[in-house]
Write a structure and sequence with these properties.
heterodimer, A: alpha+beta, 14% strand, B: 3-stranded parallel sheet, 6% strand
């Protein structure tokens, strides 16, 4: 194991030399950020040209639009020489080849909140631009369907603007009169013409089938409208936003510390795995190094949650395809994982157990026995599942060559996680950019070959085995030490440091009551979560709350891919595709 | 209504006595029809396969072997609201979802019951935020509130058992032409009041430093 203090505050990085040369004629301003991601400000007229060149026109290009979001800058005080802006649109690009991110920012002033759509360059910009329109009111001329995506079509206002109230209790009280019920239902009616779809073609009348928002196969409140010619899917329109819980706005009114429980509920099968990118980012902004023990405990719990999440995926996936029993086995096994989590954290699904600079508590006495029991119990069970489910011929017939896509398509849509690895690309952030000490562990990255529903299932099953390997190494090599960093911004501070004099008492009191003040700056940390890459992009304005919290979740781009991978298949294939994506609606809509 | 069960360990204990009476006892249940109906209802509360968010995972966990809700006759989840007796509002009630929830509830046949599961459905919980309705009782009549975020499967089962008890004592008109047309609901007393005394007497909590 490494020595204590493994999270270094990264050096503020420079613009890559070749990019500087390539973009010199277009012109840009550089910004320094705490996370070391090169950040460039470009003019909005230049944006499509810059994006086009970054995607295809340079050596070692940036093929992935990792994230697209906006910041309402109107109330921000610490901008440290950034170009003047009322609303900033942020594009984050990713180059697996360079193993590097690139952030582009575009400043918008006054009421002129419009910039060219890049939907034709990066296909997955489609939903991200709709989201920016919905939540900030930023227009993207050139976008064919710039409609609300997360909020109801009848909604007024753009909630992530600083002048929009955050609380429901600040808005008029909710009531659902019969009139309103009819209005809302009417607004949800699907009109194919609005999506450029034909109702009939030559000698065929298409059938429009509505799945959801409450349907046993949609795994949550998702609606998919399928255009059918007989059994064949011609096109599909996923509709999301039924699970929009305002998690990003919530970050602007909770203290840095009290926001942690909200992160648990984003990917609600991932538990403390969601805390990790958040606390890592806050630690990056605050410059906290955590002890090695904290890192290893974090890794162990994250991997336990990965197993629990994949078990739910596995059980529901095979159930959707007609096997009735495995879901019961999978949930029973998940119960055993939860027994450990509960013994350590005191809670099952949402422990909120990580803290800024450490953990809520140390491991309880006797945890080793519980973990050892699981390590003995689970591997034979996984072998059995492989035998009874994955080698089942019906299962194979229903998943092989269904919903298949290539690595290039996956990158085009921003797909990460097992969905990307099933196409054969071994891209796992735990190996590619080890965080929280993952470089100290031995494990393999399972990959598939065909990128179909079968491979996605197989990859996840194998990932559970690899997670068990990691948990075993945690068990055998748990470092000694403290469960919190000795840093003034560690929240709450170690109790043993608090009761010495009035200073330490006041410090503890302020930190717990008012919350820590994080230095101004911007940082983003990405981790390999259960469903794919999850990151928090936090902007601190030097207050006890975040100025802007951006949660980039893996499920959002994965769902956007549904129409592209289900065309030509049948409705029953769509059920397999939905199951194999393994999405969580809270992870999509946040 | 009088009825007995044979004890499987000790053979047919009810088979003693006059053979005619025994045969009668084995084959005929005597009682008032409305009690028989209530008894049937309370032992077959079929939930609607409906979930909103995190709580739904714990609701699904209650159906699986470690918790086994089948013991109480509620494992038959129905995919259509028309066949379901009880809807568990398991999760956050979103502004975009509320009209859909109401529509689904309206499609359920009487008699129907609503369990509000978890803090979000009870009151909005942690999510006092623009897109969340502050409690499903803003637009649906709720019978049982189950606290927790999310409640453990055991808590849902407790809520279900309380509802079961209430349904057992509920009286409804048997026909639209016969007798009293009113519905008499069973009592659903506050569990916080009931448990306060024993809870406040607890002096030792489970230690957190031992597994």
């Amino acid at each position: 194991m490494r020595e204590a203090g493994t999270v270094e505050r990264p050096a503020e990085s420079e613009i890559p030399e070749d990019l500087g040369r390539e973009l010199a004629e277009i012109g840009f301003a550089a910004q320094r950020t705490a996370d070391g991601i090169p950040t460039l400000w470009v003019e909005r007229e230049d944006l499509p040209r810059v994006m086009g060149r970054l995607k295809t026109g340079i050596a070692r290009p940036y093929p992935v639009l990792y994230d697209l979001t906006a910041i309402d800058e109107r109330l921000r005080r610490h901008r440290n020489g950034q170009p003047a802006s009322d609303f900033t649109v942020v594009y984050q690009l990713l180059s697996p080849q360079r193993d590097q991110d690139l952030r582009l920012k575009v400043a918008l002033r006054g009421d002129d909140l419009a910039l060219p759509s890049v939907r034709d360059i990066y296909r997955n910009a489609d939903w991200y631009e709709r989201e920016a329109w919905d939540l900030f009111g930023i227009r993207f001329p050139g976008h064919p369907h710039l409609k609300r995506i997360l909020l109801p079509p009848t909604w007024e206002g753009h909630p992530l603007r600083k002048d929009h109230p955050a609380r429901a209790t600040e808005l008029p009280e909710y009531s659902l009169s019969d009139d309103r019920q009819d209005r809302e239902q009417e607004a949800l009616r699907f009109r194919p013409e609005e999506w450029g779809m034909e109702r009939a073609h030559e000698d065929t009348d298409f059938l429009f089938l509505n799945l959801g928002p409450n349907h046993p196969a949609t795994h949550g409140v998702l609606r998919v409208i399928v255009q059918l010619d007989g059994e064949e899917i011609i096109d599909a329109v996923p509709e999301i936003g039924f699970h929009h819980r305002g998690a990003e706005k919530m970050g602007e009114r909770q203290t840095w510390h009290s926001y942690i429980p909200y992160t648990d509920r984003v990917d609600y099968l991932g538990g403390v795995m969601n805390n990790l990118p958040y606390v890592l980012t806050v630690e990056k902004l605050a410059g906290i190094k955590v002890p090695a023990r904290v890192e290893v405990i974090r890794v162990m719990l994250c991997e336990l949650f990965r197993i629990a999440s994949h078990l739910v995926f596995f059980g529901t996936m095979v159930q959707d395809l007609g096997q009735m029993s495995p879901v019961f086995y999978a949930f029973s096994d998940r119960q055993r994982v939860y027994d450990i989590i509960e013994a350590i954290c005191g809670f099952r699904m949402h422990p909120a157990w990580f803290r800024i600079g450490g953990l809520a508590d140390d491991l309880p006495e006797g945890w080793q026995r519980l973990v050892r029991d699981l390590l003995d119990y689970l591997p034979p069970r996984l072998n059995e599942y492989e035998r009874i489910c994955l080698r089942n011929r019906i299962f194979q017939r229903r998943t092989r060559h269904v919903g298949a896509y290539t690595t290039a398509e996956a990158l085009e849509w921003g797909t990460t996680g097992p969905g990307l690895r099933a196409t054969g690309m071994a891209w796992d952030l735990r190996k590619a950019r080890p965080y929280s000490g993952y470089d100290q562990f031995e494990f393999d990255i399972p990959v598939g070959a065909r990128g179909d529903c079968y491979d996605r299932t197989l990859v996840r099953l194998e990932e559970m085995r690899q997670s068990l390997r990691i948990v075993e190494q945690c068990l055998e090599n748990m470092p000694l030490g403290e469960h919190k960093a000795r840093h003034p911004l560690t929240t709450p501070p170690m109790k043993s440091y608090t009761m010495h004099d009035i200073e330490t008492l006041i410090h503890h009191f302020v930190e717990v009551g008012w919350g820590p003040v994080i230095p101004p700056g911007e940082a983003c940390t990405a981790i390999e979560a259960t469903k794919g890459i999850n990151s928090y992009y936090l902007t601190s304005d030097g207050g006890n709350m975040s100025y802007r919290t951006r949660i980039r979740t893996p499920s959002f781009p994965h769902l956007q891919m549904i129409p592209a991978i289900s065309r030509g298949h049948t409705v029953s294939d769509l059920v397999a595709i939905l199951g194999s994506i393994d999405f969580i609606m809270a992870d999509v809509d946040r | 209504m009088r009825w007995t069960l044979d004890d499987p360990q000790n053979g047919l204990t009810t088979s003693k006595g006059d053979p005619e009476e025994v045969a009668l006892r084995h084959n005929v249940v005597m009682g008032r029809l409305e009690k028989l109906v209530a008894w049937g209802r309370k032992n077959s509360m079929w939930p609607y396969n409906f979930g909103l968010s995190c709580c739904y995972v714990e609701m699904a966990t209650a159906l699986t072997p470690p918790h086994d809700i089948a013991r109480f006759g509620s494992e038959v989840i129905r995919a259509t609201p028309r066949e379901a007796d009880v809807i568990v509002i398991s999760g956050t009630v979103f502004a975009k979802m509320a009209p859909v929830v109401r529509r689904l509830y309206e499609q359920m046949m009487e008699p129907r019951w609503v369990i509000s599961m978890g803090s979000c459905a009870n009151s909005g919980g942690m999510y006092d935020i623009y897109s969340v309705v502050q409690g499903v009782d803003r637009f649906l009549p709720v019978d049982v509130y189950v606290p927790g975020c999310p409640p453990r499967p055991e808590a849902l089962i407790e809520g279900l058992l309380l509802l079961r008890q209430a349904i057992g004592t509920e009286r409804r008109p048997l026909s639209w032409v016969l007798g009293d047309q009113r519905t008499y609901r069973g009592p659903l007393p506050s569990q916080r009041e009931r448990k306060r005394k024993t809870r406040s007497q607890v002096t030792e909590l489970r230690p957190t430093d031992r597994a």
